[in-house]
Specification:
By secondary structure, the chain is mainly α. The chain contains 16 helices and three strands. Helix 13 packs parallel to helix 15 (307-317). The structure holds acetyl coenzyme *A (ACO) and oxaloacetate ion. Pfam families: Citrate_synt.
């Protein structure tokens, strides 16, 4: 029995949700290019959960369901007020708040398809509300309720900032949400599937997935990219900084990918938005620095920029706090986690691989009084 480190190349399940073939990403058969150019985030969520794009009537009804589900249970708001948010990472807060959300859902352990679909809507809507609430409470501001005439992306920004976002901001955040929604068997999605394959509930699966997304080798990289750009400070420092990191064998955040070797098809959209938004906000240095780093890493290590790389300067240009970058990723990715959770339930088998044992051979047991 031999093992594959990090399960690289191992096909662990069948899935009809998203595919990565020859560096092309599709959601239920639609290319990410078509979806990013044409779809609202709600359309994509509907697609992931129903394996078809909605009609206008279906989309209208689905948007209303999400809208109506955004109110947070009082207990979750009380919980968010109960500790010092200034010392807590918002991904840890989100992980705990989603777990607590489950305590206020009377259907949490109802495993019927109907109840799971209703919980899916509540989780999708309320994760956005939790991230917004965290941000408002942390800065001592009142919570903002969503507006019925705004879509999901616009409401996310509105609930965070308390003012209606500009069209270009809505377009950027909508595109970012679409691009982050699902990604085959990435670490957090796999975590969600492993969890619910024990027939545990959806809140447990999503809570576990948030924990996996938080790490810097996965969703947590976007925040670290901005930390790196901030440390670099000015364009002329970029290459010396990267050379120094590589010499110390440190990883460059936002670079490299387990599956994509030639390029992440989502990065080009974020790169374009980064250029536009950094120019618009008179901070082109973040984009200019980023392209220098991307070119250098490509040339030196042959590694491509991943989805987290340019999303950092996009979110920064939108005025989003750096530690909220990964929670926003989670607000999008929960749609994919849920699609995978539903798929796992529909065709379940416990996920339980084996380990190749490399410890000591069977040894003689020595009673404690005789151990030297
Ligand atoms: C949404 C997402 O999750 S996208 C990924 C977000 N994560 C990051 O951006 C963190 C930085 N990147 C990485 O750590 C990695 O590229 C991962 C985790 C994404 C993929 O990792 P793996 O497939 O396990 O590749 P692995 O870490 O084995 O790297 C292979 C080689 O490339 C190097 N390498 C990979 N990524 C990087 C990087 N970002 N910077 C420098 N070197 C790198 C490794 O050091 C290794 O070199 P070696 O063979 O000389 O030891
Ligand atoms: O697929 C992966 O390993 C990581 C990734 O890009 C994602 O989750 O979007």
């Amino acid at each position: 029995m031999s093992s594959t480190k990090g399960l690289e190349g191992v096909v662990a399940t069948q899935s009809a949700i998203s595919s990565i073939i020859d560096d092309q990403l599709t959601y239920v058969g639609y290319t990410i290019d078509d979806l990013a150019e044409n779809s609202s985030f709600e359309e994509v969520v509907y697609l992931l959960w129903n394996q078809k794009l909605p009609t206008e009537t279906e989309l209208k009804a689905f948007k209303k369901q999400l809208q109506d589900a955004m109110d947070l249970p009082e207990g979750v708001i009380t919980h968010l007020h109960s500790y010092d948010l200034s010392t807590v990472h918002p991904m840890a807060a989100l992980r705990s708040a989603v777990s607590i959300l489950g305590l206020y859902d009377s259907e949490a352990d109802d495993m019927s398809d109907e109840a799971n679909k209703r919980k899916a809507v509540r989780l999708q809507a309320r994760m956005a509300a939790i991230v917004a609430a965290f941000s408002r409470i942390r800065s001592g501001k009142d919570l903002v309720k969503p507006k019925s005439d705004l879509g999901f992306a616009a409401n996310l920004l509105y609930m965070m900032n308390g003012e209606e976002p500009k069209d270009i901001e809505v377009e950027a955040i909508n595109k970012a949400l679409v691009l982050h929604a699902d990604h085959e068997l990435n670490a957090s999605t796999f975590t969600a599937r492993v969890c619910v394959a024990t027939l545990s509930d959806m809140y447990s699966g999503v809570t576990a997935a948030i924990g996996a997304l938080k790490g810097p080798l996965h969703g947590g990289a976007n925040e670290r990219v901005m930390k790196m750009l901030t440390e670099i400070g000015e364009e002329e420092n970029a290459i010396p900084y990267i050379k120094d990191k590589l010499a110390k064998k440190e990883k460059i955040m936002g670079m490299g990918h387990r599956v994509y070797r030639n390029g992440d098809p989502r990065a080009k959209f974020l790169k374009k938005m980064s250029k536009e938004l950094t120019e618009l906000t008179h901070q082109p240095k973040w984009y200019n620095m980023s392209i220098k780093i991307e070119d250098y890493i490509k040339q030196e290590k042959g590694l491509p920029a991943n989805v987290d790389f340019y999303s950092a300067s996009v979110y920064h240009s939108l005025g989003i706090d750096h530690d909220l970058f990964t929670p926003i990723f989670a607000v999008s990715r929960v749609s994919g986690w849920i699609a995978h959770i539903l798929e796992q339930y529909a065709n379940n088998r416990l996920i339980r691989p084996r380990a190749e044992y490399v410890g000591p051979q069977t040894r003689e047991y020595v009673p404690i009084e005789k151990r030297g």
